[in-house]
Design brief:
Layout lengths: L1 E4 L6 H12 L7 H4 L12 E6 L2 E14 L4 E12 L8 H15 L4 E4 L4 H5 L4 E3 L2 E6 L11 E3 L6 H8 L5 E2 L3 H8 L5 E6 L5 E9 L2 E11 L1 H15 L3 E5 L4 H8 L3 E6 L2 E5 L2 H14 L5 E6 L2 E6 L2 E6 L1 H9 L4 H4 L4 H7 L16
Parallel strand pairs: 4-5, 12-13
Antiparallel strand pairs: 1-2, 2-3, 3-4, 3-9, 5-15, 6-15, 7-13, 7-14, 8-10, 10-11, 11-12, 16-17, 17-18
Helix pairs in contact: 5-6
The structure holds coenzyme A (COA).
Coenzyme A (COA) binds next to strand 4, helix 3 and helix 4.
């Protein structure tokens, strides 16, 4: 057995064949079409494989993302396409491969790693914890469009430039090029909906589905709140069945306006998160507090314990999972009754951190 190691360029076809056979046996497209930036020859150095007699038997990929938020610029290592050949499972191969991806992410200065799975216990053993927040809102019925002047369309031929321009207005987003947006737009099993104003400018967009995943889910969207609501009402009508939009918790205005409509509201986790570079992340967070005029912030690690709070009002946290929840949520700081009200007021200026990963970036 050989690896974990990154595949040579000449091995790329056999890596893809392994992934398609193991993870996309019923699809009539290649998995690389679903993750065009992660599963691409330009990201070979971040793929990890184990081979046996020149056959790929285990794989995972790391995709580093730069995610900008109002307070912090995160470097996030997304991990995906984790799979081991059926004949070689339960021998620790995926564990080894993921550990190698994590050490690669740490070397590349990622603050955290993130992944999406339902194998919670498997990943908890590797130090991941369900964290961050995601709101999903099911639009149960069609409602009155707030802006009837918009022209609504399902035409898949949309200029990547126009989408990119609205995407760039999000307060939290990953750094993407127009070319990457173009690639994402051609992911199979994707439906794009757009709303255009009278001067021909894109007012809102919404993207539903992504390969075998996220059918019925709008996972990428952008534009004005009234444009989006108008688009959602149109999508509900077009689909003739309920549709779900996934929203970051910090998009308060959109959430509030949607909750006035016939919808079902759910709050869940963003994903499974593991902190990789505590010192680097703590320095970024302390800088964010100082920029808000809070100079007495304490966030230190001593042994296995974390000391956190504002000068004189400190909590001691044991274990990484408590720290992950404290920083990324979900957490209700006032309800914790750990800190004095004046400390809570300071802490909630930054926490929980507004981390968000848009659907096209999830792998
Ligand atoms: C999930 C999956 C990737 C795990 O791969 P794997 O190579 O079997 O993983 P590991 O061997 O490292 O760990 C699997 C189990 O074996 C155990 N194990 C680890 N090392 C072991 C060893 N040396 N000897 C025996 N068992 C071992 C682990 O504790 C783990 O136990 P758990 O199932 O209770 O969590 C594999 O089952 C798979 O490919 N599934 C289909 C695709 C999939 O679901 N991918 C996950 C997407 S997030």
């Amino acid at each position: 057995m050989e690896g974990p190691r990154s595949p040579a360029e000449s091995e790329w076809p056999s890596v893809l064949k392994f992934l398609n056979q193991s993870l996309r046996s019923n699809a009539d497209w290649s998995i690389s079409a679903e993750y065009p930036t992660a599963l691409s020859t330009t990201n070979l150095h971040n793929m990890r494989i184990i081979t046996d007699q020149e056959q790929v038997i285990s794989h995972a990929v790391l995709k580093p993302l730069i995610i900008k938020s109002p307070h912090v610029i995160f470097k996030v290592g997304a991990i995906g396409s984790v799979v081991t050949n059926e004949m070689h499972r339960n021998q620790g191969l995926s564990t080894k491969i993921i550990e190698d991806c994590l050490s690669q992410a740490t070397k590349q200065q990622c603050d955290i790693a993130i992944l999406w799975t339902d194998l919670y216990d498997f990943y908890r053993r590797l130090g991941f914890e369900l964290a961050g927040s995601e709101v999903s809102v099911v639009v149960e019925e069609e409602f009155q469009a707030p802006d009837p002047t918009l022209k609504l369309s399902k035409d898949p031929k949309v200029a990547a430039q126009a989408i990119h321009r609205l995407y760039s207005t999000h307060t939290v987003n990953s750094v993407r090029t127009v070319e990457e947006t173009r690639k994402f737009l051609s992911i199979p099993q994707t439906q794009i909906y757009t709303a255009w104003d009278s001067s021909g400018q894109l007012a809102a967009y919404a993207v539903e589905g992504k390969g075998v995943d996220l059918g019925g889910y709008i996972h990428e969207w952008g534009g004005s709140v009234s444009g989006l609501l108008t688009l959602l009402s149109f999508i509900r009508r077009e689909k003739q069945k309920p549709v779900t939009i996934i929203i970051p918790l910090h998009a308060k205005n959109l959430i509030e306006r949607l909750r006035e409509k016939p919808v079902t509201y759910n709050q869940g986790y963003l994903g499974m998160i593991k902190i990789l570079n505590f010192d680097q992340l703590a320095a970024k967070i302390k800088r964010a507090f100082r920029a808000e005029g809070i100079a007495d912030i304490v966030l230190e690690k001593q042994g296995d314990k974390y000391f956190f709070g504002c000068n004189g009002d400190l909590a001691v946290l044991e274990g990484d999972s408590n720290l992950t929840h404290l920083l990324f949520g979900p957490i209700d700081l006032p309800a914790l009754e750990v800190f004095k009200p004046e400390t809570v007021e300071k802490l909630t200026k930054i926490l929980p951190l507004n981390l968000w990963v848009w659907g096209w970036d999830s792998i």
